Amino acid sequence: GCWTGTSGRMVAANSWPIMRPWTGSGMQPAPEITGNENTCASLSLLVAEAADLASSISDILDLQKIETDRDGAASEQFDLIALLHEVTEAARSFAGDKAITVMDASCPSTAVIHSDPSKIRQIMTGLVNNAVKFTDRGRIAVIMSRDDGELKLTVADTGRGMTPEQVSDVLETSDGGYDVEMNGLASSGLGLRIVKALVKKLHGRLSIASKKGEGTIVAVSLPFKPLA
């Protein structure tokens, strides 16, 4: 099919690593692989660059799918707390040997609601995995709260943080103008844009508070109807 909208521009902006012998975002020639002790390091670098590229392409494809999806959100009964437990447990495995703690700080033992469990799982998995990716040490907290007919899902981390410009780029840019790089915080912005698109499908709001070098708090506010 035709690539249009935001994802089409992302593909065009990021297709050059496939066609040219450069590494991901640094625009430097790929390291020469020789038969000496540098071979393993060179191969590891190339594998890492390939993994970054594959991850970014996967994110772009996900965004394309969300953009072109004309179906409305599903409405099913499910236990949100159980879903959040599953997301945080998976994130602990994703964190591997990193010196970080992934914690579910939601107080209720259960919270049965009507909403779209698949999209909420995608949102929370994206936010938590994004936090793990850009947090080298410290903690990541997943928090759920309810107030005045809104469901608030928050992911707070002690990671690298973002500049005000990066936050504005995610929150204010709607359909185009993205300067997406393959590594670093620009990749974080791509993941957050996927979350933003999913939140929009659920008629919710996304807010981000972040400080470079200190961490990020991302909050998703969604309308919901508690069970009688």
Structure commentary:
By secondary structure, the chain is of the alpha+beta class. 45% of the residues lie in helices and 22% in strands. It contains seven helices and eight strands. Strands 2-4-5-7-6 form a five-stranded mixed sheet. A hairpin with a 2-residue loop joins strand 4 and strand 5 (150-157). Helix 5 packs antiparallel against helix 7 (185-201) and helix 6 packs parallel to helix 7 (185-201).
Number of helices in the DSSP assignment: 7
Q: Overall mean pLDDT score?
A: 75
Question: Largest sheet at a glance?
Answer: 5 strands, mixed
Order of helices and strands: HHHEHEEHEEHHEEE
- Derived from helix and strand composition plus strand pairing, the structural class reads alpha+beta
Q: Which shape, going by the Cα principal axes?
A: globular
Q: Strands of the largest sheet, in order across it?
A: 2-4-5-7-6
Intertermini distance: 45 Å
Radius of gyration: 19 Å
Q: Uncertain runs with pLDDT below 50, 5 residues or more?
A: 13-27, 175-186
Beta-strand content: 15-25%
Q: What helical percentage do the residues reach?
A: 40-55%
Number of strands: 8
